[in-house]
Amino acid sequence: MADEVVRPQRDASGDGFGNDPAIVPQPQVNVDTGQDPTIQRFDDGSSIQTFDDGSVLATGTDGSISSLPGLTGQVQRTQASATSQDAQNANLSVDWRVRLSLAPGANYLYKAAKPGILSPLSETNGVIFPYTPTINVTYAAQYDPTDLTHSNYKIFQYKNSSVDSITIACEFTAQDTKEANYLLAVIHFFRSVTKMFYGQDSKPKNGTPPPLCYLTGLGQFQFNDHPLVINNFSYNLPNDVDYIRATSFPGTSPGVNTRTPTALNSDDPSAQRAFTNQVPVGGVRGATSFRQPGSGSNGTKDPTYVPTKILLTITAHPIVTRNDISNNFSLEKYASGELLNRASGGGIW
Fold this sequence. Notes:
Strand content: 25-35%
Order of helices and strands: EEEEEEHEHEEEEEHEEEHEEHH
Mean pLDDT: 76
Oligomer: single chain
Number of helices: 6
Helix content: 10-25%
Number of strands: 17
Distance between the termini: 90 Å
């Protein structure tokens, strides 16, 4: 029979008899060398089992089971909690990537009802630079010098202040069709914002200048919807990188040539060459016909190719409205950062 070990009890007076009713008797522990040493069983029917990782499984007198995690369980719980907290922080954090977008109420270009190849920009609300771009901003104060006779120095009189042209340079890469579609949309967007609305345009009305863009990124006290107009866009199609196919209509897989060539039964090289170039024999080649997205009997699309790596450079002029200069500007507010973080209308340069 197993030896029985009884824990000593002391009452509040310390007489050692344990007759104080305020003291709850401690359960007796039975140590049985023939049983699992990791389990401690008590006279009231409860038990405690300890595992190698330090976790504890307790069984109550009514058969209820409760557990306490050991070191391994606590580490896993902490890691899970940290991961969940990071995910929540990421969802609550503000996107500080550099972005060029149109006005919130715009209904043209990638915000049009049919944006065409600009549709990838609708998902990101403008152009998001995938890598941190190089942004060059120059602030200047102009002083007119006055030459004085018989003087060792000039006198400078303040004239005005200005924000000079802004230069943004960033690399874009394309590793799959979706990224190629986005790069194609970015290139065509910057082509478009350097042109005015003209000819058949009605929304906005023809004669409207090129659209205003807004620069956002790097935090609220860097660029916070700062308005600008793009006056120069340049890109170079390199010959030392691979090129990847982009679909002419985003959202579809790259297709093949929509033309279905037919054989020409002729041994005349001139006639064969004329047929290849779609020139009638003895006639003049007509204007090139561009198919609309979705046209063609087989529904295929002509692919467009973009480089897998390219550098885009944009030059822009900062815009500050006359109303902001006259009614909203204050050097005290500007110096405190209040005018850089405007709730509406964009930050003042």
